[in-house]
């Protein structure tokens, strides 16, 4: 039988005694000096507590900037709706594309821990520069004088955007590695720890949502009603505190040894297969080139067995005397490449969903600026970006319910420790996204109808409609994210080879990067085409626009993407190693209980 993931090639030095072997991790985890680690001394939820606290404050810092960025660009830097929205999505796209570079550095050179440390230092410098740009008078853009808004100087724009893109660069080192470091604290080869890892990504996202909730309520309010200096200064202080907390947990972390550049290995496999395209692949997989188990043992790496999937790539492991020496790859290298290639089609179907998510911090927020934002009879006004808190609140409610109620109920019938497969979970999220954009289109159509019927479309005046009219689209987006976002991160981490976990995480983030860039492209294209036809869909005056048409267009796009995803998900085959532990995971507690009963029932021998 072909097995996608071989057993771990690590010597535990225990002579085969189960009691001694159980003390050490079996997944290749080491300390910073490269020594094997004791299970009881490092990793688990104790180590994760430091990592989770870091993520809480880091997400507070990031979304403290991202949530209200479109408002700063339009009201302080005096940019138009389309320009500001595109600047937000271009920056967000860069934030989520740089993790590919961070994953490369982590896997090939520095390892996840040190790549993260360097990235967090760069991240902090960007936050500091951004805070200075809204605090120092010479760096702050001039205020409007009535309806006359003088443009910001090149220095002011350069310092502000310089801070933004330094943050994006630092994020490349932190984002693909922090969640991977967290997941690395659980040993896949220990049934109890593996069962904990199944819940890790749900609670990881729960923590992120708490940070986002604080940003989209407290920080956004401070930015709109106190000062941008305070609104940016608090997350900057929070970030440096979170970095210190992460470093404090260093003595209890488990680490993985860098195993070389994933891109180099995959490129070599593909090039070798193309070069040897005429070579016949032997029927017996044992004739393919592979190193002895000891070669992997010494480097604390994994060895994998050959599979028949994507058989063309197996040519790279054929020992052909007439071919160049560089073109001979190991079976493990070939199988690692197959696993990553297999993820690409699913990755592509994540671009459109991430484009839809990008609307939450851009056009959804701008809609809110056109409506009545008062809460109750007083003078308090809710910041438009604070509606994003309802996305987070929905996720905060939905994720624990999913993990604690839905999964436990469903897995009794599916015998899947996750309740349903990861792709099924993601598919539900995609379906809810279609409903979300359709709802947004209907709501916007009603808003525009009111504006036109009362002659407010030409004046760009505030509509006497409550901002909470937009609430359904935010809540539905939060529900979609609870299924899609958590499932996406878990899927790309789980399905990546053991030696390419950072790359797997980076791929999940790349979807956000491409999705945001694609959002900028679509908005610019639609704006230009509709303007040339004399009926612009998106203008600075949203009351005179046809944003409902744009949302309807995104609904159709989301529905088409969902159908493509469903077809791919139906044909996808999970890694064997990811599915063959189901029975073990389901019976962990039963086995432990029986063992405890046996211990207590045996007589004590002095």
Global Rg: 26 Å
Unreliable stretches: 1-21, 578-606
Physical arrangement of strands within the biggest beta sheet: 1-2
Strand portion, in percent? under 5%
Principal-axis shape equals: globular
Overall pLDDT level: 83
Helix/strand-derived category reads mainly alpha
Largest sheet, if any?
2 strands, parallel
Kindly, what is the distance between the CA atoms of the first and last residues, rounded to a whole number of angstroms? 48 Å
- Determine the number of helices (DSSP H or I, runs of at least 4 residues): 21
**Number of beta-strand segments:** 2
User: What's the helical proportion of residues?
Assistant: 55-70%
Order of helices and strands: HHHHHHHHHHHHHEHHEHHHHHH
Describe the protein's topology.
Layout: H1 18-21, H2 44-66, H3 69-75, H4 81-97, H5 99-133, H6 154-183, H7 191-225, H8 228-248, H9 262-275, H10 293-298, H11 331-348, H12 351-358, H13 363-368, E1 371-372, H14 388-414, H15 422-453, E2 463-466, H16 471-495, H17 501-532, H18 547-571, H19 576-579, H20 582-586, H21 588-601
Parallel strand pairs: 1-2
Helix pairs in contact: 2-6, 2-7, 2-8, 3-4, 4-6, 4-17, 5-6, 5-8, 5-17, 6-17, 7-8, 7-14, 9-11, 12-17, 14-16, 15-16, 15-18, 16-17
Tell me about this structure.
With 606 residues, the protein is mainly alpha-helical. It is 64% helix and 1% strand. It is built from 21 helices and two strands. The chain has helices at residues 18-21, 44-66, 69-75, 81-97, 99-133, 154-183, 191-225, 228-248, 262-275, 293-298, 331-348, 351-358, 363-368, 388-414, 422-453, 471-495, 501-532, 547-571, 576-579, 582-586, 588-601; strands at 371-372, 463-466. Strands 1-2 form a two-stranded parallel sheet. The radius of gyration is 26 Å and the shape is globular. Mean pLDDT is 83; it is low at 1-21 and 578-606.
């Amino acid at each position: 039988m072909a097995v996608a993931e071989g057993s771990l090639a690590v010597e535990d030095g225990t002579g085969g005694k189960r009691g001694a072997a159980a003390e050490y991790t079996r997944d290749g985890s080491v300390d910073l000096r490269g020594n094997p680690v004791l299970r009881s001394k490092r990793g688990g939820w104790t180590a994760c507590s430091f990592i989770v606290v870091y993520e809480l404050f880091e997400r507070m810092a990031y979304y403290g900037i991202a949530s209200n960025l479109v408002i700063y660009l339009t009201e302080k830097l005096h940019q138009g709706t389309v320009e500001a929205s595109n600047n937000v999505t271009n920056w967000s796209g860069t934030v989520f594309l740089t993790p590919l570079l961070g994953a490369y550095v982590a896997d090939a050179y520095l390892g996840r821990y040190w790549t993260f440390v360097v990235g967090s230092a760069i991240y902090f410098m960007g936050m500091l520069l951004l805070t200075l740009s809204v605090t120092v008078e010479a760096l702050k853009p001039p205020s409007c004088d009535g309806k006359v808004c003088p443009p910001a100087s090149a220095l002011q724009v350069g310092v502000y955007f310089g801070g933004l893109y330094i943050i994006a660069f630092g994020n490349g080192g932190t984002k693909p590695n922090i969640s991977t470091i967290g997941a690395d604290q659980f040993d896949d080869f220990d049934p109890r720890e593996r069962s904990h890892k199944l819940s890790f990504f749900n609670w990881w996202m729960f923590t992120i949502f708490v940070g986002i909730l604080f940003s989209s309520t407290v920080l956004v309010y401070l930015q709109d009603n106190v000062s941008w200096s305070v609104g940016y200064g608090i997350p900057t202080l929070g970030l440096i505190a979170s970095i210190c907390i992460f470093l404090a947990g260093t003595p209890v972390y488990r680490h993985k040894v860098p195993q070389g550049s994933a891109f180099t290995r995959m490129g070599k496999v593909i090039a070798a297969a193309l070069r040897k395209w005429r070579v016949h692949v032997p029927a017996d997989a044992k004739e393919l080139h592979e190193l002895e188990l000891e070669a992997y043992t010494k480097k604390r790496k994994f060895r994998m067995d050959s599979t028949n999937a994507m058989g063309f790539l197996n040519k790279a492991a054929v020992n052909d005397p007439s071919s160049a020496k560089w073109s001979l790859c190991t079976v493990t290298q070939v199988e690692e490449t197959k696993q990553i290639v297999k993820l690409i089609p699913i990755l592509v179907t994540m671009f459109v969903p991430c484009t839809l998510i990008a609307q939450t911090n851009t056009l959804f927020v701008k809609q809110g600026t056109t409506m009545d934002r008062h809460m109750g009879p007083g003078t308090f006004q809710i910041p438009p970006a604070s509606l994003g808190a309802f996305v987070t609140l929905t996720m905060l409610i939905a994720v624990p319910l999913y993990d604690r109620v839905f999964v436990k109920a469903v897995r009794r019938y599916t015998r899947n420790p996750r309740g349903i497969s990861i792709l099924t979970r993601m598919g539900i999220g995609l379906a809810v996204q279609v409903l979300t954009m359709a709802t947004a289109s209907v709501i916007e159509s009603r808003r525009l109808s009111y504006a036109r019927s009362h002659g407010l479309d030409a004046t760009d005046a505030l509509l006497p409609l409550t901002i909470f009219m937009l609430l359904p689209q935010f809540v539905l987006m939060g529900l979609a994210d609870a299924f899609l976002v958590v499932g996406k991160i878990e899927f790309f981490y789980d399905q990546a080879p053991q030696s390419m976990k950072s790359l797997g995480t980076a791929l999940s983030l790349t979807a956000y990067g491409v999705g945001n860039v694609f959002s900028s492209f679509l908005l610019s294209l639609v704006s230009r085409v509709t303007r040339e036809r004399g009926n612009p869909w998106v203008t600075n005056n949203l009351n005179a626009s046809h944003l409902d048409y744009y949302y309807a267009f995104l609904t159709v796009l989301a529905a088409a993407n969902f159908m493509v995803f469903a077809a791919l998900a139906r044909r996808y085959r999970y890694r064997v190693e990811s599915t063959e532990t189901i029975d073990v995971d389901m019976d962990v507690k039963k086995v432990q209980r029986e063992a405890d009963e046996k211990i207590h029932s045996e007589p004590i021998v002095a």
